[in-house]
Amino acid sequence: MKSNSRSKTASSRLLKTSVACILLAAGAALPVAAEPPVVTTQETLLDRIQIEDMLLAYYNGFESDESHDWAAFYTDDAILDINGMRAEGKEEIQALYNNYAEISPEENVPGKVHVLMTNPRIIVTGDTATAHMIYTETINDTVYLAPRLIEQGREDTWFKKVDGRWLITKRYITQDGGLPPAYMKTYKER
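The structure assignment produced for this chain is given below.
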């Protein structure tokens, strides 16, 4: 009888978690304001794919235990602003990521973290582009527990094509939930 009761409890938890995720996703998909649709042409399609591939490679760095060359994704004079904490230029950006465990120790948690990019709106205009998307960080504490949300927010990024490669010129990350204490003083609602 105990295993049947446990099974019902686990099923109930799974159902509740699934419903919460669906509601969260539905709410995140609602537009803030009506915007004209972006018209993708043959000329911009490859650029959009290259930008999306670059962003996926960028976010993959968060899932790796190895060091990551964050500066390789940025122009020399780029700006990275995470909730008002600002780094300018490749050296400062790389240093921010290299020292992140010291800057925000509460985010150094055991388990496997995954970053999801959703609702990307990428607009290419010649050799420049912009992207707006929602990011969601999840953590898997163990293989036996359902993943849980850590934080969620928005990212606005500007790109420039340099020698055939898309690079970030400006990146603003704004959390909407799960703000770590390290950002309490610098957080700017945008």
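Interim note for the steering committee: The longest strand covers residues 148-162. Residues 39-183 form a domain with the Nuclear Transport Factor 2; Chain: A, fold (CATH 3.10.450.50).
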